[in-house]
Design a protein that fits this description.
15 strands, 4-stranded antiparallel β-sheet, 288 residues, 3-stranded antiparallel β-sheet, alpha+beta
């Protein structure tokens, strides 16, 4: 009798339907997959309606911040100006730059130029120049909800191989999005990224990857772009995470200088990042 009463209560997700008519079948399928040995998400990773509303609001601000950077970025600009744009635009929207003071990170945004793979400091003494390729990685916290995306920018005219790398990194995002289906392991995305990059003669960074994002800045699951198709957590409707493969012109080997990460061989690296929601039919891009 108690079980029937519990199943008749409103679903935890806020859909307005009973648990029995909403998430009961989903959670049963998760439990069954777990018993078969699959890596499965807990309820915490299945977003409620209220959480999705908050994440979408955060994402809207994050994209406006990236648009503000896109409108101004140019040769001769000190990287610190990008940091100022991000801070000012984010705060004007009533939000907070998520990277600022995160585990001691001292800036509002990561700006990675040329051979920098990720976490580049937007220093005042470094100015953009024609031919540079630049990743601006922007993350926003708004009313306790998080969004995360990055874009590549080509400064003036870049050489053909640099442009090809930037476009391939974008193609890798499209390849990953195209294979997202609920109840498939995240490794299908990793394999799609590897296929796309390797066909073009580029390498894929595996030390850093995608991650859950929405209720926290960085949460489970971690997404390794070195996985095989059968590896990784099952993608279940309601999960939100980032897709952010880092594509290198040469070797995937890295060197680190504190926060900042570089290619070991000094060749170029490129990365686009989107934040997605797994749906019943595929993926919805929340932030790009």
């Amino acid at each position: 009798m108690l079980e029937k009463v519990l199943k008749g209560r409103p679903c935890f997700c806020g859909s307005g339907r009973s648990y029995r008519d909403c998430h009961e079948a989903v959670e049963k399928r998760i439990r069954d997959a777990g018993r078969r040995g699959a890596i499965v998400p807990g309820r915490k990773l299945l977003r409620t309606r209220a959480q999705l509303e908050g994440i979408r609001a955060s994402a809207g601000i994050n994209m406006r911040v990236l648009d503000a950077v896109a409108a101004e970025i140019q040769a001769g600009m000190p990287l610190s100006r990008i940091d100022e744009i991000v801070y000012e635009t984010t705060c004007a929207a009533g939000a907070v730059p998520a990277p600022l003071h995160y585990e001691g990170y001292p800036y509002s945004v990561c700006v990675s130029v040329n051979d920098q793979v990720c976490h580049g400091f937007p220093r005042r003494e470094t100015c953009l120049k024609t031919g540079d390729i630049v990743n601006v990685d922007c993350s926003t916290e708004y009313e306790g909800f998080f969004s995360d995306a990055s874009r590549m920018f080509e400064i003036g005219t870049v050489d053909a191989e640099a442009h090809r790398l930037v476009e391939n990194a974008r193609d890798c995002i499209a390849a990953a999005l195209s294979v997202i289906l609920p109840w498939q392991p995240m490794g299908v995305m990793s394999a799609a990224v590897q296929d796309c990059a390797h066909r073009a003669g580029f390498s894929v960074v595996t030390m850093y990857g995608g991650h859950g994002c929405g209720v926290e800045f960085h949460e489970d699951p971690f997404i390794d772009y070195g996985w095989k198709r059968t590896e990784g957590m099952l993608m279940v409707p309601g999960m939100t995470f980032t897709i952010e493969p880092m594509i290198n012109q040469g070797t995937s080997a890295l060197r680190e200088n504190g926060w900042e990460v570089y290619t070991r061989d000094g060749k170029l690296s490129a990365q686009w990042e989107v934040q997605v929601l797994v749906t019943e039919t595929g993926a919805e891009v929340l932030c790009r």
